[in-house]
From TrEMBL:
Residues 180-206 are annotated as: Disordered. Pfam families: YcaO (PF02624). This is YcaO domain-containing protein. It comes from the Bacteria. Residues 1-257 form the YcaO domain. InterPro entries: YcaO-like_dom. Residues 194-206 have a biased composition (Basic and acidic residues).
Length: 257
C-alpha cells in the first residue's frame, strides 16, 4: 500500500481484515494483486483515516473495460503530472495561443472568453508522460483579482483530445460562474486543495503536435514498466450495471514496483 501514488504516509487505524482488501489486476501482465479498499475508494468511508489522498485520480467510467482502463490510466497520470508541476519537479509548460488555435474547437472555446472579458492560460504537464495531460486556467476578469480562477485538467493518450478536454471544461466552468454568479460544481477533485495560482511556470517549450500519433495503451504501459511504475486496475462496476451489461467503472492505481 505504501508504494501507491496516493498513499499519504499515514498508517491504517487498525490491521486490515479481509473485507478491507480488493482484488486488482496488473495492466502489464494481468497478474492479480491485493489492494486496500481505501486506495480504490479514497473519497469514501473506507478511507476515513486518510491513509490515501482523497482524489478522483484513476477513476473512470465507459462502455468497455478497455475504454475504462485507458481513461483511468490517463487520469492517474494527470494527477501525477499536476502534482509534479506544483512541486516544480516537472514544471508546467505554457502552450502558445497560436499553436492552440491550430484546432478549431479549441480556438472557438478560447475566443468565446472575449464575451466574458476573461482570458485563459493553457499548460502541458510533462510529468504525466506517457499520457498527454493539460491544465487550462481561465483567469478572473479585470478588477476581480480576488476571484479564484476557473481551471480544469484534461488527459488522454492523444494530445488533441487532452487539450480539448481541459479547455472545454475550464471554459464551461467560467461560463457558469459568469451567468450563475457562483462557481460551478467541479465534482470530485483530482488533487484536493490545488490552486493554479501557485503553479511555477517552466522555461522550456513543449514540442507537441496536434497530429502526433497517440501511443497505444500497451506501449504506454511498457514505458511505465521500464520506468519502474506499476499500474493496477480494479473493476468497480456495480452488480446492477453488470446484470444489464451497462456501463463499466473502474479505478487505475499507480505505484512503484
Amino acid at each position: 500500500a505504501t508504494a501507491l501514488d496516493l498513499h499519504t504516509g499515514l498508517a491504517p487505524a487498525a490491521p486490515r481484515g479481509s473485507e478491507h482488501w480488493l482484488t486488482a489486476v496488473s495492466l502489464h501482465d494481468g497478474t492479480p494483486r491485493r489492494i486496500p479498499a481505501a486506495a480504490v475508494y479514497p473519497l469514501s468511508a473506507a478511507n476515513a483515516h486518510r491513509e490515501f489522498e482523497p482524489s478522483a485520480a484513476g477513476a473512470a467510467a465507459g462502455w468497455t473495460t478497455e475504454e475504462v482502463r485507458e481513461q483511468g490510466l490517463c487520469s492517474a497520470l494527470a494527477h501525477r503530472g499536476l502534482l509534479a508541476a506544483l512541486r516544480g519537479t516537472a514544471p508546467a509548460l505554457r502552450l502558445d495561443r497560436d499553436w492552440l488555435d491550430g484546432d478549431d474547437e479549441v480556438a472557438f472555446l478560447l475566443g468565446s472568453l472575449r464575451h466574458l472579458d476573461r482570458t485563459a492560460r493553457v499548460y502541458a504537464l510533462p510529468g504525466a508522460a506517457p499520457a498527454a495531460a493539460v491544465l487550462a486556467v481561465v483567469d478572473p476578469a479585470e478588477g476581480e483579482a480576488a476571484t479564484a480562477p476557473d481551471w480544469a485538467v484534461g488527459s488522454a493518450l492523444a494530445v488533441r483530445d487532452a487539450v480539448r478536454d481541459a479547455v472545454r471544461e475550464a471554459v464551461g466552468r467560467a461560463v457558469v460562474r459568469h451567468y450563475d454568479h457562483q462557481p460551478a460544481d467541479s465534482g470530485d477533485p483530482l488533487l484536493a486543495d490545488a490552486d493554479p495560482r501557485a503553479l511555477p511556470e517552466g522555461e522550456g517549450r513543449c514540442d507537441w503536435s496536434y497530429d502526433q500519433p497517440a501511443p497505444a495503451l500497451a506501449d504506454a504501459l511498457a514505458r511505465l514498466d521500464e520506468a519502474g511504475t506499476l499500474a493496477l486496475f480494479t473493476d468497480t462496476t456495480t452488480i446492477d450495471l453488470t446484470a444489464v451489461r451497462g456501463m463499466v467503472t473502474g479505478t487505475v492505481s499507480l505505484g512503484t514496483k
